[in-house]
Amino acid sequence: MTILPELIRQRRTVNLFTAQSVPDALITQLLETAVYAPNHKLSEPWRFVLLDSTAKLEYAALRREYAIQQGKNPQSIYQMFLQIPAFVFVIMHESADKTRRDEDLAATAALIQNLILLAQDKGLASKWSSFPDLPEFRTWLSLAEQESVVGVIHLGYPAQIPPDKGRTPAQERISILKGK
Ligand SMILES: Cc1cc2nc3c(=O)[nH]c(=O)nc-3n(C[C@H](O)[C@H](O)[C@H](O)COP(=O)(O)O)c2cc1C
User: Fold this and answer.
1) Tens-level pLDDT at each residue, the chain (180 residues)
2) Is the pTM of the predicted complex or chain greater than 0.70?
3) Mutation probe of ligand 1 site: the residue of 10, 11, 12, 13 with most atoms within 8 A of C-beta
4) Does residue 129 have its Cβ closer than 6 Å to ligand 1?
5) Is CATH 3.40.109.10 the classification given to domain 28-161?
6) Gap between the Cα atoms of 18 and 158, Å rounded
7) Crossing angle for the helix pair 74-82 and 53-70, nearest 10 degrees?
8) Is the CB–ligand 1 distance for residue 163 below 6 Å?
9) CB neighbours (10 Å) of residue 87?
């Protein structure tokens, strides 16, 4: 168990994982805590999809096709996705009300940060990856029209931990509003 400031500062976006699998039961356990994220009016706008081994192959193949569209090397993208031990698709219900929708997005992002810090606390590493919001991906994931994927979370035990990219000190972004 690492203390929270260290967990936050040591977290990295990791691309390369060992072959060690990540049990669904462990991911479920992490999510049971992650859902304690603040969410206004207890809307709990989320649901989660994990992949079995066949679906992982399907997702890697979809990403290979998408790499071609993006002008990237399809084979290296395919290999990269094949070595990711587990995926968590974090799906949000899109409210028709903009304020509610924005609050729900913020809450779901908080949940994801909870998830990746809890994962790190268990020795796992993660990557928060964007979901290509394209018809073929949406159909494959059986997304409803009013759903979006806030993040695809890659999970596994790290094979290589990237260096700290650093951050602008918060101090430089702090101002004090002086009352009139
Ligand atoms: C909403 C969101 C979407 C992201 N999507 C991607 C992505 O598609 N691909 C990627 O490589 N990293 C993605 N990232 C990770 C960021 O690129 C990463 O956090 C940033 O480079 C800082 O690196 P660090 O996480 O190691 O500190 C995403 C992060 C967020 C919050």
Assistant:
1) 569 999 999 999 999 999 999 999 999 999 999 999 999 999 999 999 999 999 999 999 999 999 999 999 999 999 999 999 999 999 999 999 999 999 999 999 999 999 999 999 999 999 999 999 999 999 999 999 999 999 999 999 999 999 999 999 999 999 999 999
2) yes
3) 13
4) yes
5) yes
6) 6
7) 150
8) no
9) 22
